[in-house]
Amino acid sequence: MAEEQEVFLTPLENYLKVGLHIGTKFRTKYMAPFIYKVRPDGLAVLNVKKIDERIEIAAKFLAQYDTKDILVVCRRENGWAGAKLFHKLTGIPVIAGRYRPGLLTNPALEDFKEIKILFVTDPWPDKNAVMDAVRTGIPVVACCDTNNESNYVDLVVPCNNKGKKSLGLMFYLLGKEYMKARGTIKSEEELSIPLEEFIKED
């Protein structure tokens, strides 16, 4: 197992500690390929290796774009702290809270945004942003739990997208790998915000 742990973006215990792999009791056909098992209490458990792989793929995909060309949208309050730290770390714009419909499609809006890629923490509460991106042909990367549908998602990042700590770890890893892929940092030690900040209690 030690050898396998080395290939993860963070030690396996970090994933387990924040429950990034613990899904819901609801499972959609879209998420079936990412589900490892169903616990006796009915909760679906996501495959940690697939979570890890997808975070890395998503970070490398995002790294093809400048920070100004990416937008992160997070309606779910549990993700706000992680999303804001992600913004501080990377400089990528974040909307933590309500997304204003038309922000990506209506140039008449004073805060109209022209972006090349959208990242959302949950395609259901963030559906207005997802649909705006679809209308304008912008690729969508989304964190999806076992109960999510991914009809309009171009790249699924399977994870527990309900928990504050799990979203915190996801944003930390995404930020770290984005910066590494962009050549901004070479190792975790160079990050201005440590992992502890992303997964701390209130």
Task: Give the full name of the CATH homologous superfamily.
Answer: Glucose-6-phosphate isomerase like protein, domain 1
Helical content stands at 25-40%
Helix and strand pattern: HHEEHEHEEHEEHH
From the coordinates shown, what is the CATH architecture? Answer: 3-Layer(aba) Sandwich
The CATH first-level class comes to Alpha Beta
Count the helices. How many? Answer: 7
Alpha carbon gap, first and last residue: 33 Å
- Beta-strand content estimate: 5-15%
Rg over C-alpha atoms, rounded to the nearest angstrom: 16 Å
Shape field:
globular
Chain-averaged pLDDT: 95
| Tally of discrete structural domains | 1
Low-confidence stretches: 1-5
Fold-level CATH name = Rossmann fold
Strand element count: 7
Question: How does this structure look, described?
Answer:
The chain is an alpha/beta fold and 202 residues long. The chain has a single domain, classed as Rossmann fold (3-Layer(aba) Sandwich), CATH 3.40.50.10490. 35% of the residues lie in helices and 14% in strands. The chain contains seven helices and seven strands; from the N terminus they run ααββαβαββαββαα. It has a five-stranded parallel beta sheet. Strands 1-2 form a two-stranded antiparallel ribbon. A hairpin with a 5-residue loop joins strand 1 and strand 2. Helix 3 packs across helix 6 and helix 4 packs parallel to helix 6. The longest helix has 19 residues. The protein is globular and about 50 Å long. The N terminus is likely disordered.
